[in-house]
Design a protein that fits this description.
Layout (H helix, E strand, L loop, with lengths): L5 H12 L3 H22 L6 E2 L2 E2 H30 L4 H6 L5 H29 L8 H26 L6 H15 L11 H8 L2 H14 L6 H27 L2
Antiparallel strand pairs: 1-2
Helix pairs in contact: 1-5, 2-3, 2-5, 3-5, 3-6, 3-9, 5-6, 5-10, 6-9, 6-10, 9-10
């Protein structure tokens, strides 16, 4: 059962984070500007319009999702694996009243927090460039980024629990994260792709997150919004349970 002690795990990771917050923020600020310039201005110079908006406006919502995805994934692969193995931080935490369920959820919650930091930074940058006009929808976007971050953080934590070494993450990034980056409708609609790719796209959590974020940015059709939200919440719940099970199997003999 998850208790308030999960927040102790979160606070431990936060205290480590603020010791090198400067370097982290450089990445959080530099990455969205680079993507917006390279994709929006570069490719946008050739693609003038997509789905009724300029290309840079089309990709802006999806870039928030991919930023959240990568932030959570990096934190809960390399970061969590280091705490699990070489630092043996997980074993030390479990020597306290913190339960294994609290440990797993606290780690996933911290990964989701890193997504929120990246997502909010992206929103600020996009507002500065005139790509987003903050309103009440900003609260929906922040909530969506948090849930999306929890999905990818707990999924990455699950993979970390079965990884024999850092090199093993190449499988995860190549076979899971890279396809989501390109096949989730962030950079182009999937309508013209073969049917199997469209089905695959609908099975990816990033697709559902990008769908909702694009609606909160530009409005438009509300079809499948609730379905996408249910899918993301269900995946977050499922992956947290899976991560807890796999960490228990690895640490508890």
């Amino acid at each position: 059962m998850i208790t308030y002690r999960a927040l102790y795990v979160w606070r431990r990771n936060f205290n480590v984070y603020i010791t090198h917050i400067g370097a982290s923020m450089v990445g959080n600020i530099g990455e969205p500007i680079l993507y917006l310039f390279a994709m929006g201005v570069g490719i946008g110079g050739y693609i003038k319009e997509m789905d009724g908006v300029s290309y840079i406006e089309y990709i802006a919502p999806g870039l928030i999702v991919t930023s959240a995805m990568y932030s959570a994934t990096f934190e809960c692969t390399f970061g969590s694996y280091t705490r699990l193995t070489s630092q043996r931080t997980f074993e030390s935490i479990l020597a306290t009243p913190v339960s294994l369920e609290d440990l797993a959820f606290g780690e996933a919650l911290w990964g989701a927090t890193k997504s929120l930091i990246s997502g909010i930074t992206m929103i600020i940058v996009m507002t500065f460039f005139g790509l987003y006009h903050p309103g009440f929808s900003v609260f929906g976007i922040i909530a969506l980024v948090g849930v999306t971050g929890l999905v990818f953080a707990s999924a990455a934590l699950s993979f970390s629990a079965i990884s024999p070494g850092y090199e093993f993450f190449n499988y995860y990034f190549t076979l899971a994260i890279a396809p989501m980056f390109f096949l989730s409708g962030v950079f182009f609609p999937m309508d013209n792709f073969p049917a199997p790719f469209q089905v695959l796209s609908q099975a990816l959590p990033a697709t559902h997150a990008a769908h909702i974020t694009r609606y909160l940015f530009h409005g438009g059709q509300t079809s499948h919004l609730w379905w996408s939200a249910i899918v993301l919440v269900a995946l977050a719940f499922a992956f947290v349970r899976i991560a807890t099970f796999l960490i228990r199997r690895r640490l508890v003999v």
